[in-house]
Amino acid sequence: MSSEYTPSLAFHNAAAYLSNASSLSKVSNDTKLELYGLFKCLTVSSSPNSSRPSIFDFTGRAKWDAWSSAGKTFGNRLVDAEARYLEIAASLGWRDQPIATPPSLGKKGEEEEEIDWDDESPPQNRGTGAGGGGGGMGATVSSVAPPPLGEDADTVHGIALSGDVAELKGFLDAHPEVDLNERDEFGYTPLHLACDRGNTIMVQELLRKGVDQNVKDADEFTAIELARVAGHEDIVAILEKPDS
Amino acid sequence: MSGTHSTAQKGKAEEIIDTTLEGEDHASSSEGEEDTAEHPIDQNTPSTSTSHKKKKKKKSKVSKALKALKGQKEVPQAVVDKVLETVKAKHGETEGVDENTVRMALDHLKIMDVAKGKTGLMGKGRKDAGDHKFWATQPVPQLGEEGPTDDGYIEASKPREEVRQDPYPLPKDFQWSTIDLNDPNQLKEVYELLSLNYVEDHDASFRFRYTAEFLDWALKPPGYHKEWHIGVRVASNKKLVAFISGVPITLRVRNKTFGASEINYLCVHKKLRSKRLAPVLIKEVTRQCHLMGIFQAIYTAGVLLPTPVSTCRYFHRSLNVPKLIDIKFTYVPRNQTLARMIRLNKVASIPHLAQHGLREMEDKDIPEVAELFGKYMERFDMVPLMSVDEVRHQFLSGIGEGERVKGSWKGRREKQVVWSYVVEDPQTHKITDFFSFYSLPSTIIHDPKHNLLEAAYLFYYATDVGLRTAGNLDEGEVNLKLRLGELIGDALIIAAEAGFDVFNALTLMDNVSVLQDLKFGGGDGLLNFYLYNWRTSPLAGVTGAGDRDPGRGVGVVML
Containing domain of residue A228, as a range? Predict the structure, then answer.
């Protein structure tokens, strides 16, 4: 998916700030990598456009992974990716001070009331999180706790779930004997999982490898039926016309 | 408004508020109020916890442990071992409790974030030094303090004339405003402030959207005081930019009963977050409570403040699976597909008790429900005591407008915020059970397809079944669990039929016993319960406490 997202002015300001911020030198590599991944997602595309660098290219590989991970975390929710970027920038001393605003001509004291209370866009230097300005007092907004990630990242099923096509290619190069129609312990083939989770590019790649579309899962569903139930129309279309 | 200006003003505003914060945190002593005669309410005996100073010296074990955790990413082995050991000591060898489960659970609870001070228990509530400073001045048990040997107040009550008479000062350009919720315009102002600025989840995907009807219901119980509905307005244009509220509640905590204020809906406009208004709002609502002769309060927060009396976890039952997956409220488990998840979460189309006397609660049921409820709540340690009027208000005043179809269990009326049902024994015509849930939607902040999450929350319930077999405790518990499964199971069916996407419940009351069977899944949100100016030892919530099973310490559902 290419990035159609246009980052805000605040983002560019923050990026400019960070590019020559002295505070950045004290920042951990993890944070730098996260910033890198977010920046790439916001300015290039939501996943790296090259294959994953070899294990000997430490830096390149770490950067690639950071980019890929940011893409997976935020997917098409790039607004959130930007908010996260701004949040890190703010923690490193950046302050959002739009250059577009002319210096005040008004009398002191009235300035504060010029805040546009009806402007619903959130303040950009603290874009995310937290509750109510009351230090989180009140009830809590909760959602289902996400499952632990990457438990079977090193199996073809785990890769199908992740949607990481480059990873699949690497895996198949290293394990050419792997049967792509194999069922996991729950009775799903990699194609079932990719279709169910909506990993379109993975579906295309699996089809290219010649996987069997007609395998049924434990509930008697084929891959196309799973895609249909899950509302992944693009995948349904691909499976109906595998040659296109 | 430019960032430059707010930054320039910031120092000034903080200075002003800091005066309230620091200066009269000892409001009492500086105003010479502390040494005045005590006027304890009969039930209020001072707690007999060891003195404050003593506790301070003792470096809390918790804070030491937390300190050791800082700088680590993984939950350390020692912590995992300790938890395992505790669980085993309490419950014996339990199936499914192994190292990995414990590690996962701790991970989920983001205990590392707590340790690093990034968050309270759950949620992204970075507490800065200022907040801790504020709470250190309040009559609340401080973190790490040992539990009291006896329950009671921390600060004695005082007569009205000794209560501070003037409102606390606000930063220049802001003014206090008592909100009249009977005025539809003012009600709408509160609704708008909250729906744009109130509590969000940790990654800003969902924000509570309390409806105006809901607020009207929640904030006007019998005997409410309009002085406890407190707003802050911009002086120049009267725009409402902050709010806090209290409503009266009679609480029983263990064996002591007292009048208290239920504090809720503290909200500061997003653009005022740096101004530290929250402490002033808390002080002002406290002052207003004092003026009415109320010196205790109950409140909840997602973040960790000094000091929770209990902590409960949210659980979620998916009703509209495809939508919940779309908006990333829930996830397809590794061993399922969406198709299977939909099938597994499908609920029956008719409540199981529909043929056995289940119907909507009516006016005539109020006395029986009040009695049933009062009796049932004796099971728990911290509960509201409700008069007949309060029962009417809580369960029937929010049922919306429009026709009630006799004998029907279905539906959703215009402006309905609460759903209340009873089971009437077909032979004796006695009310044997009742349950209720309320509607609290959330705005879905960034989603191309959906903008509102329709969530139902389990409210109060009571049943006579299970309490009947009092002679045989074990049999009673089994019957009770079965009956609650039927009742809350039927609540799910009714909620699904009424168009809710998800049904939420906390690990309080007897909920824990049915959550798993009814296919609730653990949430990422915790809710901490707090008492203001009252000491009692911890109550069973997400974990057991003393000989209480998980949940059974807490019997208060905060709206």
Answer: 156-240
